Amino acid sequence: MLRLALGFLCAAAALGAGLAVYYLRESRAKPLPAAIPAAHGVLGAASLGALLLALFHGLPRTGMGTAGFAPIAAGLLALVLALGLALAWRRGRPPAPALVATHASLAVAGLVILLALVALR
Fold this sequence. Notes:
Blueprint: H1 2-24, H2 35-57, H3 69-89, H4 97-119
Helix pairs in contact: 1-2, 1-4, 2-3, 3-4
């Protein structure tokens, strides 16, 4: 289940990187289709859901000191989801760069923690 969460999160991060470049550059040639941000959000929410399922079913013990990684990653991803919903609520208006940067920074932190958890299992 952790690998599934990581896969969903990597796909969401790839879409998110493209969205960040699109929104933060100065000139936008044409409007972005609404399906792309929606797919980004669905993939991110699916990642959080898979991670929460893995947490509720219990993770196997490890001697690597990674016991707190999954709850930390889940907390970060929940915060990222809340910020993403705040960005979606602003639909039609340009997103605030600080909100985009905070959303992206916390998402990268959650991705790195989840990647470390999967790599050390």
